Amino acid sequence: MKIIIYAVSGDCHAGAMSEKSDVIQIEHEHYDIVKDFLRNQLELNLALTLDFEIKRYDLTSWQPFYDAFYKSCTAMRDCGIFKHKWHTRTQWELGYLDELLEGCYGDPDKFQHRHYDSNIGDK
Q: Most buried of 7, 17, 38, 114, CB within 10 angstroms?
């Protein structure tokens, strides 16, 4: 099965900068990079919401999570998965291309599939 990440909010989500949400197919060689990115995305979101509330708006508490997230965004760009800054300003979920096409993540017509290959670009 083909692994994807798909936009669920942010710049590359339907209704923001486009009428369709981006979908990026992930090659096996990039699984570890994507796992790190998704883990850091979640950790930053937790720090900016739950930890932020618990620690009474201590802005310094989320800085290490932001640094890790930014580093993983750079890795996603360096290997060719992210092509522009708007990809880093998007919230992503992991899924399967077949399930997306079957409508498991919403209306398939609301997504635009992009296959990025390192050093090749759009296919």
A: 7
